[in-house]
Amino acid sequence: MQVWLDSLGTTLTLPNGWTFDAGTWIDGAASVLVIVVAGWLLVRLAHAFARGAVKALMARESVAGSVTELSTAEMKKRQDTIEALVVNVVRVFVILIAGLMILERIFGLDIGPAVAGLGIVGVAVGLGTQSLVRDYLNGALILLENQFSIGDVVNVAGIGGVVEDFSLRRTTLRDLNGTVHTIPNGQITVASNLTRTWARVNEQVRVVYGTDVDLARRVIDEIGAEMAADPSLSGQILEPLHVERVNELTDRGVTLLVLGKVAASSQWAVAGEFRSRLLEAFRAAGIEMPQTVVLAASGTPAEAIAPAQRIGRPGGGPGRAS
Predict the structure, then answer these.
(1) How far is the C-alpha of 237 from the C-alpha of 264, rounded, in Å?
(2) In the prediction, which pLDDT does 2 show?
């Protein structure tokens, strides 16, 4: 087969009369190569940018003290998850745009209608999946900022419980009744973490009017010191329970504010132990707490009325009216 080059050496003429413009194809191949290399570089730059941004944000959260309880493996997992999310989104856009540019460059296709069609499809898909996109974006922010982790006790979207599972799309909680709640992350606007690093015991102790407030304060402070010295509780108590102030004067009595700082997740157990010891200590010191008196209707036997709890009177006499 006889083949010859034209004077420029870029056009090949075949025996059947067809011509092959080598320059055009070489130019197109070079353009495709440039597009592919540019797309690859964009993906690599997105990967490096995502990695640097995530590390910077995690470092900021660490300085703020919200990620200090995370292990190295957990922090690495969080970084990898966010990096993968950012890189995958960028990769999809780069591949789509690069593909359209290659079709236009090699085959001379008019990508205007395709771009317009993709825009319409994108709007339709966006309208249909905007809640899903919001779930994923909010989940990424929760993960990045370490708002809560598996095992934390939280209140989110009006529901409280232990975080049993967490993904970029949804959070799974189990409440005190054992009910499992699945919450889309897009519905989480405020996340209240009850077990972040440390917690506070906040008790309102009310005594009747006429009580020696200084005596009540000393009794409560002694209970706090005893609990802090108890080997079974010392590791949980960071700051002994103590009377902070006289908090209220109500129609039922004097309210004392008792505060204490404890390790995360220990506030409920420590508060329960404090109440148990408080009952015994007040009884021994003769300190009385307000009661609610239940009056029986006429003809009702007195034995049918449950005796009101009377702290400080072992005999359990009649309660004091509130």
Answers:
(1) 10
(2) 40
